[in-house]
Amino acid sequence: MAGGKGSRMRDPEKCLIRIGKLSIIANLSEILSHLGYETFIATTRLHRKVIQFAEENSIDIIYTAGSGYETDLGEAIVSLAKVPVLVVPGDLITVDKSLFLEAWKAGTRSGAGVVTFTLNGNFSGISVINRLPPIGMPMDFETADIRSGGSFNVNTPADLELARSYFLTP
């Protein structure tokens, strides 16, 4: 998911911010590809640099309306038309490759339509969608926590500084 407004960072394409050697989205793409996941980027047509990144890296794009995270997520899942799906936010940077495997295993074992994950007790944006959302109906969901070191959800300038200080430490 890389189509947000980025209002707290004043950068709607914050997924392209470089932390360490890679941009946030390049870090995610590299890890997910290494783990064997088929990757798509959900974004709006207004995020031209995100679209350019996807095209340059041969990543398929799912265009959403930019109406908000939940609405855009629903649009992306319906457009994809296959489940289960691991949803990863475009503002999460990590060195913990097992993070996504752990979420996938826990999420797909659940009986819930949607499993959302907190990361060390904080919102992460990681979810597993097990069923296509019924039109106009809420999905049953559950929340689970994952413990992970070296993972940062970059929503504010303070989050960015914390992530940069971690990735620059030898």
Structure in words:
By secondary structure, the chain is α/β, with parallel strands linked by helices. Helix content is 33%, strand content 24%. The protein is built from 5 helices and 10 strands; from the N terminus they run ββαβαβαββαββββα. It has helices at residues 24-34, 48-56, 69-80, 98-109, 157-168, and strands at residues 18-19, 22-23, 40-43, 60-63, 85-87, 92-94, 114-119, 122-129, 141-146, 151-153. Strands 5-8-7-9 form a 4-stranded mixed beta sheet, covered by helices on one side. A two-stranded antiparallel sheet has the order 1-2. The model has no long low-confidence stretch (mean pLDDT 88).
List keywords for this structure.
170 residues, alpha/beta, Spore Coat Polysaccharide Biosynthesis Protein SpsA, Chain A, four-stranded mixed sheet, two-stranded antiparallel sheet, 33% helix, globular
Q: What is the mean predicted local confidence, pLDDT?
A: 88
**How many structurally independent domains?**
1
Count of DSSP-assigned helices = 5
- Return residue spans where pLDDT drops below 50 for at least 5 consecutive residues: none
Gyration radius (Cα, Å) is 15 Å
CATH architecture: Alpha-Beta Complex
Task: Please indicate the percent range of residues in DSSP E strands (runs of 2 or more).
Answer: 15-25%
What is the highest CATH level, the class? Alpha Beta
N→C terminal distance: 30 Å
Query: Given the helix and strand composition, which structural class is it?
Result: alpha/beta
The major β-sheet equals: 4 strands, mixed
Corresponding CATH superfamily:
Spore Coat Polysaccharide Biosynthesis Protein SpsA, Chain A
Q: How are the strands of the largest sheet arranged?
A: 5-8-7-9
Q: What's the total count of β strands? A: 10
CATH fold name: Spore Coat Polysaccharide Biosynthesis Protein SpsA, Chain A
Percentage of residues assigned to helices = 25-40%
Order of helices and strands: EEHEHEHEEHEEEEH
